[in-house]
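Rather than argue in generalities, we have chosen a single entry, letters for residues, whole numbers for local backbone shapes, without further comment.
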Amino acid sequence: RAVRGVAAVGPDLERDRPSPRRLDLIERLDAGGGASETTVDITVAIVRSLTVAFQPGIPAVAGLTREQLDRQIARARNRTLEDMRRVCMVSMLLAYRGLSDDELGQYVRFVESEAGRWYMSAMTSALLAAIDAAADATAAELATAVPQLVGDLR
């Protein structure tokens, strides 16, 4: 389970171990809301944009096609996901610590409902589209600015 070792991470969680019910609610919230997946997808979007922008200067990926690069990034994403689940579990345990189990349960039931799934999907899609656009624009600017900056520092 993703929560193994969670109780020992933060001082609040070490002192006040979450109940099995609370851990289950947090796992359901992550599964229904996709916090772990979204966090990894945001990271991947930024890494992909930077890698594509700097690809010619990165020997490990310079000769890769876009398809090969995407496959490597997808493998890295999958390796990262389980670690991110643990991090998100701790974050959510801390973020929702002010809610009772009943209040958290109400929120989880909303997230798992048809309306909640629609909302989470719409919000995640919009967030990822915005991150993709910002990451692409920033990476392109960095690819231009960094060589100039390095040249200026020489």
Residues 1-9 have pLDDT under 50 and may be disordered. The chain is about 80% helix and 0% strand. Residues 114-153 form the longest helix (40 residues). The helical segments are 11-15, 20-33, 35-54, 66-95, 101-112, 114-153.
